[in-house]
Amino acid sequence: MDDYKKIEYDRGYEFCCLVFEYLGIPKKDSQQIADVVLTSDLMGIESHGLQRLKMYYDGSKAGRINPNAQPKIIQETMVSAVIDADEGYGQIVGGKAMKLAIQKAKEAGIGMVLVKNSSHYGIAGYYSMMAAKEGLLGISMTNSEALVLPTFGRTPVMGTNPIALTMPAKPYPFHIDMATSVVPAGKIEVYNKKQKAIPIGWVLNAEGKNTTVAQDFINIRKNKTDGGLLPLGGTGETHGGHKGYGLSMMVELMTGILSGGCTSYYVRRDTIKERCCHMFMAIDYAMFGNKEDVEKHMSAYMELVRASNKSEGETRIYTHGERELSQFNDRKMNGFYINGKTYEELEAIAAEAGLDKQKYLGA
Amino acid sequence: MDDYKKIEYDRGYEFCCLVFEYLGIPKKDSQQIADVVLTSDLMGIESHGLQRLKMYYDGSKAGRINPNAQPKIIQETMVSAVIDADEGYGQIVGGKAMKLAIQKAKEAGIGMVLVKNSSHYGIAGYYSMMAAKEGLLGISMTNSEALVLPTFGRTPVMGTNPIALTMPAKPYPFHIDMATSVVPAGKIEVYNKKQKAIPIGWVLNAEGKNTTVAQDFINIRKNKTDGGLLPLGGTGETHGGHKGYGLSMMVELMTGILSGGCTSYYVRRDTIKERCCHMFMAIDYAMFGNKEDVEKHMSAYMELVRASNKSEGETRIYTHGERELSQFNDRKMNGFYINGKTYEELEAIAAEAGLDKQKYLGA
């Protein structure tokens, strides 16, 4: 890990809080954003951790995100709500929206809360885990800047549109948080920082050809040309590319369409604002049976899968969430690593914001 | 289409009804099963149409499905229910369960109905379309016989576990119905009947190697050996195989786990019964905004995607449901084609059930 630098969790968190306060976000809200960012790093999701701080920082400075946003509930029933985020931080309204979904699930069994006019909300899995911590099944989805190609198309018309779901189980919850594209955009950013070639089957360049150059994707995004990420399942239909494309459209429906907000094609387009939309759902599975039995059943099934026969040369089968959560506490205690280029980005932000680099970022 | 034979819709439907009546299913219920089967053929989903009649027929004869099943609601709230299907036909309890979900959605906004101890219910999309016909967003999932490999595994521990979702839109609804494996099992059955090689990346044989021989999969299923279908995203994690595996686990959770029924690993294992589980959800999007506006927004977005730039050599981008539904009425008026081997299976069933082959199946 020669190009990587270690960050202590407590200091990284405090640094992140202070950066958002510097950007004009109230202290409590800054803590919420920092918690989403640092949770990614603690889960080993480098792409969505401090690696993304510069994107948020630049977005705030450019006026893409409203620091004084006043989210408002504009529709509400016993099981549902629609919130207008007033162009604020996705992490702030996201936390509030999932809390509302949780409250509704506890009262009515299911809560489904949609958010429009928001901005990038970080890892989708942060919100589904909030529900699981309350003993509920949690689901979250978001649309995002159009970067993904439909089957047979060459213009990105869909976001990477992740789906996250968390279900309480032991020793780890079942926790999936997946872009409906082959990989999320942040993963290409990380490859680019590492100057590493990306595998064939991730990105088509502006000419519609497979590329292994991460920078090609960065350029597509910057210049809004044709080309982009392939949907899960890849090119064409033979290996199910139309399924990834369909899952992405499903997320557009559950977020931008149902909320009356924007679809990914219009996110960060035409105006300076982001305008993404999110969906949060909590389900109290007590309405289907004894909760403890349901959790035990899930745990036993995951154990059955992990214990099943391995492919040649493989020693383990992982269930979803295991790898992300098994090292969570260790990273919190002992720190985690960020890319040297990310570190340089943080240094530059520290200098601008007048924060003590040595104190927060270490050596 | 030299190996294919034409079937007139009306006669095929009547034939199907009479076969199920011969198997001891009441007339009205036989019509429901036949409607699910024939709807598949009308949508061009050959794998789940009359091609599957022999599987149902043999299953009934073998006692896998209870012809006198009395499904019972065993848990119920305003927004949810759990139904024990009493080992009956999935199509019968499936129709009833989605009707209940629709009724709950009309009253409370959302209805989520789970079914356990059921059997193969046909195309998942049949049920999500039922909700869309009532002006609701419909979702359905089912688990099924374990035929799919987890990432890094060689034993099938998950079913093909399809997800279906239908949302009203014009000129066609958004309608997705996808196995979470690269392809559904029925597609391999069709390739086998055609004696056609399957593409690399669909099936690993009992030794864990890629195979192009459809019969390898048929043998895995018959002999319950290692090997099976790859999850959407394929082998390993590079192209997202862990995502298809995770989606399949998500379906296990929403069906077998939450209902207190069986996971796919135990479907058709140890006992003669099938014991699959289904999930049905209906959402009245009136609770989020003006219904007509929401539908218009969805229609416009699908049109934007269809109209976007095409890949080199491609002339069309399809939205989900377009191909299945655009020829539906034509097939209903003018008939559809079934494989010669499927035709022979139907002839044998006709002979056993004492049905006039000439009258129902034509020449």
Kindly summarize this structure in a few lines.
Chain A is an alpha+beta fold and 363 residues long. Chain A has a domain at 1-76 and 327-363: Hypothetical Oxidoreductase Yiak, Chain: A, domain 1 (Orthogonal Bundle).
Task: Explain what the structure shows.
Chain A is of the alpha+beta class and 363 residues long. Chain A has a domain at 1-76 and 327-363: Hypothetical Oxidoreductase Yiak, Chain: A, domain 1. Helices cover 42% and strands 16% of the residues of chain A. Chain A is built from 13 helices and 12 strands. Chain A has helices spanning 9-22, 27-42, 53-61, 90-108, 125-133, 185-194, 214-223, 241-257, 291-307, 322-326, 328-334, 340-353, 357-361, and strands at 4-7, 72-76, 80-84, 110-118, 137-142, 163-167, 174-178, 203-204, 210-211, 228-229, 276-283, 336-339. In chain A, strand 6 (163-167) and strand 7 form a beta hairpin. In chain A, helix 1 crosses helix 2 and helix 6 (185-194) packs across helix 7. The longest helix of chain A has 19 residues, at 90-108. The radius of gyration of chain A is 20 Å and the shape is globular. The first copy, chain A, starts with a strand and ends with a helix. In chain A, 61% of the residues are buried. Chains A and B meet through strand 4, strand 7, helix 8 and helix 9 of A and strand 4, strand 7, helix 8 and helix 9 of B.
